[in-house]
Amino acid sequence: MAKQSAPQELAGIAPKLVEVTDEVLFGDVWERPGLSPRDRSLVTVSVLAALYRGEQLGYHLRTALENGLSVEELSEAITHLAFYAGWPNAMTAITQLQRIADERTAT
User: Fold this and answer.
1) Per residue in 4-47, pLDDT tens?
2) Contact indicator for 35, 62 with CB cutoff of 8 Å
3) E strand or H helix that includes residue 106
4) I need a labelling partner for 46 at 20 to 30 A (CA). Which of 14, 39, 57, 87 fits?
């Protein structure tokens, strides 16, 4: 897994937020041994989709693919959460996944 980091262009307006994102979230929480990066990605994508947090979802879908999840597994997770988190949330998430999958096959 590539080292995750907050967008560094935000350091000018929110240096502490970038710092704690890098040091605590990505430097500690994501590195804990209790879950694999793959499993953490699955949890993160599911929560972001369920809570309709589309701005962060694309980044984490890409990270999930880098962490070993397949497009098919992510599609299955999104389909499953449609019944628990709502149809619009799932449709938004699957649309982003489709866009990312298309980008990956085009390159």
Assistant:
1) 777 788 888 898 998 999 999 999 999 999 999 999 999 999 99
2) no
3) helix 87-106
4) 14
CA distances from 53 to 33, 44, 88 (A): 26, 11, 12
- Residue 67 near residue 38 (C-beta atoms within 8 A): yes
What beta strand segments (E) does the chain contain? none
pTM over 0.85: yes
Q: Tokens 């262009």 identify what position?
A: 9
C-alpha neighbours within 13 Å on the C-beta side of residue 37 = 17
Place of tokens 């699955």: 42
pLDDT average, residue stretch 68-88: 98
> How far is the CA of 45 from the CAs of 8, 35, 40, 50, 59, in angstroms?
22, 15, 9, 8, 9
